Predict the 3D structure of the following.
Amino acid sequence: MLEVRLFGAGQVSYASQTLPGFPERQCCRPFCYLLLNRRRPHLREQLAAVFWSDLPSHLCRKYLRHTIWRLRNALACLGASPDEYLRLDDEAVSFAPRGRYWLDVEAFESTVMRYQAVASHELSPEQATALADAADLYTGDLLEGIYDDWCLYDRERLRLLHLDALGKLMAYFGSRGDYERGLMYGERILAHDNTREKVHRQMMQLYYLSGQRDRALVQYERCAQILRETLGVAPLPETRRLYEQMARGTCDPSRWAAFRNRPSAPTPTGGSPAEQLLQRLHHLESMLVEARTELEEIERLLATAHAEARSLQAASRTEARPAS
């Protein structure tokens, strides 16, 4: 079976043999492109333009023919039949497998997308395990070390899917009292993007719930330092309020919606009509608090981005101004 890993450094293997020089070899890069865009054939002229757009069209097609020939030889040297994985005709090229194969990006993406619309508190234990296994496939950003335009969009798209999966797992385990594992997923998120203030705030909550108030306060200090040094901003009022409540010991963890094991449907059951109404209002209030916090964070990031853009424009005008 052909096994291809595109996360991290990347690897292609077949029958326990590994393709040398992957993905840096020139013949490997079009193969990576075909794998990432495996759902359709690609016209030869368009595929050649992706890699040799600065050359005349006749040279582009010549280089493409030579590259495909080298790719076929490389697969054959592994013991794989090129015709079982590559479909070629006079007009188009595609990855069209008839032989068995496994692609880490495909396995990761199919699982993460399957549960993308499922809220963390709605995941079953089996679904959470499948999502955790998929997240573990992400051993690094897509094709680390390759900075060609054709892979940058997919690199960012898959990175965001990975962070979303980690966030869902963090909330899932936190809501079930497995605070240690929830914190582990939080650290994995911050390893990729340590400016995510919401994650810092959730980690503060998890530390507090696990009885580690001192660690929760330290997490706030860590968050404040990162935001100050990286973005030049202070934590949001919501984060500062949480810190002050924790420092005073006046927190009400029952109001932390992210780590409450809520039913999938907000419709209350049992109790008097007044009690049911109070339950519904409490649920809506929790949703409003979460939405308001998200909006504040977005507004803060937009303001920072606008300020940086204005600064860059001013610097550009200064550089462009002719010397007197």
Remarks:
- Residues 78 and 224 are 52 Å apart (CA to CA).
- The domain at 2-99 is CATH 1.10.10.10 (Arc Repressor Mutant, subunit A).
- The beta strands are 2-5, 11-14, 17-18, 42-43, 86-88, 92-95, 101-103.
- Confidence is low (pLDDT under 50) at residues 262-269.
